[in-house]
Amino acid sequence: MNVLVLGSGGREHAISWKLAQSSQISSLYIAPGNAGTDAVGINVDVNPEDFKAVKKFVLEKEVGLVVVGPEAPLVKGIVDFFKNDKALANVGIIGPSQQGAQLEGSKEFAKLFMQRHRIPTAKYASFTKDTVEEGKAFLAKMKAPYVLKADGLAAGKGVVILTDLKEAQAELESMLVNQKFGDASATVVIEEFLKGIECSVFVLTDGHSYKILPEAKDYKRIGVGDTGPNTGGMGAISPVPFCTEEFMDKVETRIIIPTVKGLKAENIDYKGFIFIGLIKVNNEPYVIEYNCRMGDPETEVVMPRIKSDLLNLFEGVVTETLSECDLHVDERVASTVVLVSKGYPDAYEKGKEIKGLHRPENAIVFHAGTKKSGQKIVTNGGRVLAVTAFGGSIDEATDRSFAAAGSIEYSGKYFRDDIGKDLLGY
Ligand code: AMP
Ligand code: GLY
What we know:
about 425 residues; D-amino Acid Aminotransferase, Chain A, domain 1; nine-stranded mixed sheet
């Protein structure tokens, strides 16, 4: 079968790397891909958000399955576009419908969904421009810290947590009235602050049954010791030691089952990944957010741990026979360390030549922001590479990732050398 993966990050390299191992693949295309996906498949110059261009390519190359990596095409309705087009009727697509993607595309939609299905999450209220004064009064009645969330997609920047009431009220005004995040903050969700430790749980569903993929912990801040501004993610570890069997049982019964059943009961077409951002508070799981795609860099530890054929699992999703598919998982620890460009997550440098990509021996180098420039590979994004390694313990896996990350060179290279260290006490 010919397969097309949409996207260009480390997540898409990891998915493509895993798909390329399937014996059932004829041609693997990645649109637009990066210098790493170029080594496991064929990069094509198609914009994932230009649905007509995607359709043209799919028909031309007789693609049988499309895997949507990022959220933007999903929230824009690529799955509905495929379902409503007769010429594409036989093409499988991994990802939820536009309505399903609202779990990520609208915080308010996600909150109401959780409320309807009694899924544990922080208490909240939502406000618009017309109710900004009520919002300020609501904040005044709450305890600090104050959690303000832009309803829509805001490139990962739409959540603001403040400890000062006046600042929180000013922020609410700026989001609602001054449209700080444009349309994305036309509605703002104000949430109760939950104190605990976070992890990412991934589910693959065909709309009826589901498989729980390996869980992971992501490191969001730029600085060592979880300091400084938020990034897309600086590293990840899987499995997560505090996700014990007892805890994961609670996650399954209280969150995963009601989510999958709730989508089905509401006739929301969902055939793809559900990424559940969780917080563990006193041993109890609460949903912080849903995403309608895999996480990045979590995918770079999740995919290597999946031993089963990924194309077979995707076919199970498309044909609604996922319950018949096997999912075997590598017991070892996988760690990934993200190498970023100087300046990231603010303005950063690009076009720096990367050397030593062949050096890591005990690691897999996934590309994120890279591209070919003649014979060279150069940096082309804030997050440049994700270096994944296995080990018998977190220490062993991360030591290998750090050594591999150290052996790759480009001007302005930075990575966090404390990924996984917080988990050693568990
Ligand atoms: P989100 O984009 O919804 O994942 O939020 C970004 C980050 O804000 C999360 O990863 C948490 O660290 C933090 N956060 C979001 N909601 C809450 C909450 N209710 N309580 C505490 N922290 C939160
Ligand atoms: N690593 C978090 C995310 O992909 O949203």
